[in-house]
Design brief:
By secondary structure, the protein is an all-alpha fold. The chain is 72% helix and 1% strand. Strand 1 and strand 2 form a beta hairpin. Helix 1 packs across helix 4 and helix 6 packs antiparallel against helix 7.
């Protein structure tokens, strides 16, 4: 699709503009070294992903408007999209330090670069501070400015709180599988992923379109459900996806992740199988991982997932079709279409 490649390159041009503005921000006297550092840090961490979150602000706004966007509308919706990508970069830079990760998007984590190290912690803080700088420069005069700032603050708080539940559930004390349940999985996913990845892009588009978010609680609920479904797919693909397709080798079992698969397995397992899971989950040893996967296969989790996928999809479609606005339905269906039965 040449149109989507075209859209992406136009979107990336907006990134260049925002980057230039940030390295020339009048609130700070930059010298060549600091300018170069920021430039390198941004290029390494912000535009490298799939850009789904950012692009979906533009998509969603276009669907709400129901026509071509003016240059100004394209720029502003893209700027909001980039604010989400900046927020994501800030989370990932700090997450990678906390998780002691090695690679991210096929390259070493930022803090793993010899010249960077723990300076990455401050870079994360800078990335987070770039968001209100961008919002101030481009949206200060808009009637929805306060709502935008409020939205970003609230979603950031929800995401950081989700990360906290994830960290304390996964890391505190001994590895205790009995702490894992569907309800804790759901809470982690909802706060850590669904709000910023699914609700935030649509909420940005709605605010730009002049809508009051208080009138769209149902939209938020559908998007959070979609985010949950997306994460369950992610958990599934981590174990059953083809590494050459998903672009990474799954390590949820080794990392003792609160994955939907292990939660489901614990729910369906007999005592013998539970014992195998308790003894082998969270171990780096390939033989232990193989034993966990064997339990997954025996319990036929692939079929359980396919069943979950079909049920979720039906529920989501029903919720979406209950929405009074056809434009909002189009936005939600476009989101669902992107993720339904994805392979990566």
């Amino acid at each position: 699709m040449s149109s989507s490649i075209d859209l992406k390159s136009k979107f990336l041009k907006v990134y260049d503009t925002l980057k230039q503005e940030l390295i020339n921000d009048p609130a700070f006297e930059f010298d060549d070294d600091s300018r170069q550092w920021i430039q390198k840090m941004l290029d390494y961490n912000v535009p490298g992903g799939k850009l789904n979150r950012g692009l979906s602000v533009v998509d969603s706004y276009q669907l709400l408007k129901g026509g071509e966007l003016s240059d100004d509308e394209f720029f502003l919706s893209s700027a909001l999209g980039w604010c989400i990508e900046w927020l994501q970069a800030y989370f990932l830079v700090l997450d990678d330090i906390m998780d002691e990760s090695h690679t991210r998007r096929g390259q070493p984590c930022w803090f793993r670069l010899p010249k960077v190290g723990i300076i990455a912690a401050n870079d994360g803080i800078l990335l987070r501070n770039h968001v209100p700088r961008i919002l101030k420069k481009h949206f200060r005069g808009k009637p929805y400015y306060v709502d935008l700032v409020d939205l970003f603050n609230e979603v950031e708080f929800q995401t950081a709180s989700g990360q906290m539940i994830d960290l304390i559930t996964t890391l505190v004390g001994e590895k205790d599988l009995s702490k894992y349940s569907l309800s804790i999985h759901r809470r982690i996913v909802q706060y850590k992923t669904a709000y910023y990845s699914f609700y935030l892009p649509v909420a940005c588009a709605l605010l730009m379109f002049g809508e009051d978010l208080d009138n769209h609680v149902e939209v938020k609920n559908v998007l959070v459900e979609m985010g949950t479904y997306f994460q369950v797919q992610d958990d599934y693909l981590d174990c059953f996806g083809a590494p050459e397709v998903i672009g990474k080798i799954g390590t949820d079992i080794e990392d003792f992740k609160c994955s939907w698969l292990v939660v489901k397995a614990l729910e369906l397992a007999n005592e013998e199988q539970k014992k195998v899971l308790h003894e082998n989950y969270g171990k780096k040893d390939p033989a232990a991982v193989a034993k966990v996967k064997e339990v997954y296969h025996t319990l036929n989790l692939q079929a359980v997932f396919e069943d979950y996928e079909a049920t979720s999809y039906k529920k989501l479609i029903t919720s979406i079709e209950n929405h009074p606005s056809k434009a909002v339905q189009a936005v939600l269906k476009s989101f669902l279409g992107k993720i339904y039965k994805r392979q990566k």
